[in-house]
Design goal:
Layout (H helix, E strand, L loop, with lengths): L1 H37 L2 H10 L32 E6 L5 E5 L5 H10 L3 E11 L5 E10 L3 H11 E6 L4 H11 L5 E5 L8
Parallel strand pairs: 1-5, 5-6
Antiparallel strand pairs: 2-4, 3-4
Length: 195
């Protein structure tokens, strides 16, 4: 009886290991398919828009923050244990595309899926030939559930927005997606040390 239990346990362990190996191989195959699909520009844009990303993306963890950087406002003295959540803007809270370069297929898919979207005019740093500031037209898609997410996170945490975008682009965009002012601080490209 004892021998049968040992054999059953070993058989179960073998099946568990085989299952884990199969899942790992399927994950690898899926990542390879996504990588291959990213080589085709139209498919790459659809994948980016859908939020599919490789499961493993090595990141350097050699980040040092100086104590007195002054990037964020002082902590609220009423609740010193309140969390701080830093959220990236582009490709996280929203997906924004220059309107002239937006593929019609992508826009029609977004409309069919019911995504909230809006158009925005942003003043560019570059000047045109006459020395006037250029205006870029941007189509912005909100991530599904964005407003509910901001509402819930702001209940227990200070919400800080980070973007590698410039303030002229990002500030009006954030004003539009955060009318309730749940985002307490905004960090734009100049706040980056390394990009």
């Amino acid at each position: 009886m004892q021998d049968q239990r040992i054999i059953a346990d070993k058989t179960e362990n073998v099946w568990t290991i085989l299952w884990e190996v199969l899942v790992q191989w399927l994950t690898l195959l899926f990542q390879l398919l996504i990588h291959a699909a990213e080589a085709v520009p139209a498919i790459k844009q659809v994948l980016e828009f859908s939020g599919l990303r490789p499961l493993y993306n090595p990141v350097s963890h050699n980040c040092q923050i100086s104590a007195g950087s002054g990037l964020l406002p002082p902590r609220d003295s009423k609740d010193p244990n309140r969390l701080t959540v830093v959220l990236d803007l582009d490709e996280t809270l929203v997906c924004a595309y220059e309107s002239t370069g937006l593929p019609p297929l992508l826009h029609s898919q977004a409309l069919r899926s019911g995504l909230k979207w809006f158009e925005l005019q942003c003043v560019a740093i570059e000047k045109d030939n006459d020395g006037k500031s250029r205006v870029n037209h941007v189509t912005v898609y909100e991530r599904p559930g964005l407003q509910e997410f901001l509402r819930r996170v702001s209940e227990f945490a200070e919400v800080v927005l980070f973007t590698a975008g410039l303030e002229g682009y990002a500030s009006p965009l954030v004003d539009r997606i955060d009318p309730e002012r749940r985002i307490s601080a905004r960090l734009y490209r100049p706040a980056t040390v390394v990009s």
